[in-house]
Amino acid sequence: MKDENIYPIFDKMQSRKDKEELLRQRGMMLWLTGLSGSGKSTVAIALERELHKRGLLCRILDGDNIRSGINNNLGFSEEDRTENIRRIAEIGKLFVDTGIITIAAFISPSNELRQMAARIIGQEDFLEIYISTPLEECEKRDVKGLYAKARRGEVKNFTGISAPFEAPEHPALSLDTSTMSLEESVNVLLKLVLPKCSSLSC
């Protein structure tokens, strides 16, 4: 029996084109991947600030605002990590389809996970940015003491120590924050991002 209570509404909603024309920018996803302590969130915040100065609307997605909210029921098993990234990608797609420049900062340790995210969001809207800071430098920073705990076996399945990290095979950009300043990293990112969102004179 046909459910007469379900109606297609997508053809009645404002289109992505409408929203991008309103914002005068093109939506896209910048997916920052790298080890804990590599500088993903720091770079994301600085990039958001610079894009905002240029009148561009952005949204950062990271562990703090995702794990404490929509994904607070997930742990760190392989299945939960996959579901974590799947939900992030679905949320990101909504922002991108609204014309918002979305910056995701997540370890997302495998190529398979990041490829899943790219498929959900759409390859044409997805830029993979590898924050390639070496493990040794990330351990030196160790702001939260997580690497030390992982070395002592107190934190299980910690990426880079007791769990693997697969470097992106073909990232749009690689940034090593142990050799580049924050300003240099952001300037390189701006050179990549601005032309791609400027088709609507942003």
Compact overview of the structure:
The chain has 202 residues and is α/β, with parallel strands linked by helices.
Helix/strand layout:
Layout: H1 16-23, E1 28-33, H2 40-53, E2 58-62, H3 63-67, H4 78-97, E3 101-105, H5 111-121, E4 126-131, H6 135-141, H7 146-151, E5 173-175, H8 182-197
Parallel strand pairs: 1-3, 1-4, 2-3, 4-5
Helix pairs in contact: 2-8, 4-5
What distance lies between the first and last C-alpha atoms, to the nearest angstrom? 49 Å
Most strands sheet = 5 strands, parallel
- Helix vs. strand class: alpha/beta
Number of helices: 8
Low-pLDDT parts are none
Could you describe the 3D structure shown?
This protein has 202 residues and is an alpha/beta fold. The chain has helices at residues 16-23, 40-53, 63-67, 78-97, 111-121, 135-141, 146-151, 182-197; strands at 28-33, 58-62, 101-105, 126-131, 173-175. A five-stranded parallel sheet has the order 2-3-1-4-5, sandwiched between helices. Helix 4 (78-97) packs parallel to helix 5.
What brief labels describe this structure?
single chain; alpha/beta; 43% helix; 8 helices; 202 residues; 12% strand; five-stranded parallel β-sheet
